[in-house]
Amino acid sequence: MNNPICPETGAPMHRDVRPLTLTYKGESMTFDMPGWYCDQSDESIHTDKDMKLSDRMLNRVKARSEVLLEPEDIRRIRKKLHLTQEVAGLMIGGGARAFQKYESGDLLPSRAISSALVLLDHDPSALSVLKKRQNKPR
Known about the structure:
This protein has helices at residues 48-66, 71-80, 85-92, 98-104, 111-122, 127-135; strands at 14-24, 27-37, 44-45. By secondary structure, the chain is α+β, with helices and mostly antiparallel strands. The chain folds into two domains: 14-66, Ubiquitin-like (UB roll); 71-135, Orthogonal Bundle (434 Repressor (Amino-terminal Domain)). Strands 1-2-3 form a three-stranded antiparallel beta sheet. It is elongated.
């Protein structure tokens, strides 16, 4: 997108980063939101890439509000357990690509996944229970 025109004023917009505050159930977070901004109005235009950042931040606010693990904690616990993202998704839950999405912030973990990870963080040896369960013939 090259230098869009403000839909409200007709003035040229420019690429900038401005603070944006998201609030969810009383939990707030302010972050730097990239986009095209008009200096003569409050209008802004955001690309898909800009919105991906906003979506990830909203998921982070939701995680804090719902007391779910945030992406960095999920990654730390998975690495502590010496699991790849794919194996973690298949063993703990969510599917082969779930942990990639949890760790990027694109998807919130369920309460069950978050709770399982908290328990495994506290007692990594409990992973053996899940490994045995996974290896059972069906």
